[in-house]
Structures are given as C-alpha cells and as structure tokens.
C-alpha cells in the first residue's frame, strides 16, 4: 500500500475509534447548556373571567352556506372557579329572537400538555360537544377542534381576546377548506357586572 494511502487509512481509523469519545465529550458539554425554555403554566388563565357578566351575543344563523343572516341576543354569564382555577364552569343565559338560550362551558386545564379543553353544551342537547383544545399566548386564547357540520368534517376555531378586568370578546369561526379561510359565526362581548 502506498505510504500516503496508509496514512489516510490510519487517520480514518483514529477518527472512528475516537468518535465515541468525541460524542461523549460533546454530550457532556451540552449537558451544562441551558435547557429549552420551560412550558408556561397556564392553570390560572381563566381567573380574569371569574364573576358575573352582561353578554351581548351575535350568531350567524346558517354557517358555511353563504348566508349573511345574523341574530343578536342579550343575556348574562356567570363563571365559577373549580379546582382552584384549574377548571371553571361558565353558565350563559340569553334571550334571542327565536327564544331563550341556556348554555354552559366546562373548561378543564391539562397540566401535562399545558392546554385547556373547552367543552360546550346547551339545554336543548343535554350533552357535551367535541372539546376545542388550545392555550393562551400573548394575551389571546386560541382553541381548535374538528367536528361534523351538515355531513362534512370542518375545523372550528374559538378565540378569546381583548381581555381586560371588565370586558372580553369571544369569537367562533368555521373552516371547510382545512383552515385556509375562516367564517366567523359567533361573537360574544362580555362586560363585567359590578358587585
């Protein structure tokens, strides 16, 4: 074998033999490096909403049909803390043109995923809907799910925004094109009722 080739083979063998040590040395160096940012604990994200609220509600009557027919309702919401804030129960009552609406939302915090599930029901169905799952970031809560509407699977987005000690906004949207476009179909604006 040519001397230059023998040197290359010897160097290659040394690198291969030394590789576990290099990897170990690299792992030891990384062990002292700061770990990835810890997930935010959001178990008290809904604390701002505990109490009684005046609710103005707008609903799109026929979502994802091209309809622009909205109805407006006036009512009230009461939010109660459960499990020291890791859950809460919202009760909504509103008078709408078609009659009286009674609804509730059970919100549950998952400490492993650091996310909330929002579980909705109304008195006419008597069962909980598919939960929307999500979290709060930068003063805004976004929650998503997939559910059937008129025989098709659609995406649902529920957004909580404009949160202050005395007001907040809730908006639900549907998408039937995989989230490329969204149609708003539920807008609720809450104003705190002073004790």
If you had to describe this structure to a student in words, what would you say it looks like?
With 195 residues, the protein is mainly β. Helix content is 15%, strand content 52%. The chain is built from one helix and ten strands, in the order H-E-E-E-E-E-E-E-E-E-E. A ten-stranded antiparallel β-barrel has the order 1-2-3-4-5-6-7-8-9-10. The relative contact order is 0.14.
Q: What is the overall number of helices?
A: 1
Approximate helicity band: 10-25%
Uncertain spans = 1-30
**Distance from first to last alpha carbon:** 94 Å
Notable features of this structure?
195 residues, mainly beta, 10-stranded antiparallel barrel, 15% helix, 52% strand, globular
Layout of helices and strands:
Layout: H1 3-31, E1 51-60, E2 70-82, E3 87-96, E4 99-110, E5 115-122, E6 132-137, E7 140-149, E8 152-164, E9 167-175, E10 183-192
Please summarize what this structure is.
This protein has 195 residues and is mainly β. A 10-stranded antiparallel barrel has the order 1-2-3-4-5-6-7-8-9-10.
């Amino acid at each position: 074998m040519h001397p230059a080739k023998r040197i290359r083979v010897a160097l290659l063998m040394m690198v291969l033999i030394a590789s576990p040590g290099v990897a170990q040395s690299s792992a030891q160096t990384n062990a002292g490096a700061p770990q990835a940012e810890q997930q935010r604990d959001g178990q008290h994200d809904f604390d701002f909403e505990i109490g009684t609220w005046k609710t103005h509600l707008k609903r799109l009557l026929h979502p994802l049909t091209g309809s622009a027919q909205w109805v407006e309702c006036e009512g009230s919401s009461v939010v109660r803390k459960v499990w020291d804030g890791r859950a809460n129960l919202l009760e909504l009552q509103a008078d709408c043109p078609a009659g009286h609406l009674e609804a509730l939302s059970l919100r549950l915090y998952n400490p492993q995923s650091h996310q909330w599930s929002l579980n909705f029901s109304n008195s006419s169905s008597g069962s909980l809907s598919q939960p929307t799952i999500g979290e709060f970031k930068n003063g805004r809560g976004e929650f998503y799910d997939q559910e059937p509407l008129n025989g098709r699977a659609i995406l649902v987005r529920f957004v909580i925004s404009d949160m202050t000690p005395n007001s907040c906004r809730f908006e639900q949207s549907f998408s039937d094109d995989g989230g490329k476009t969204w149609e708003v179909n539920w807008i609720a604006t809450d104003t705190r009722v002073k004790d």
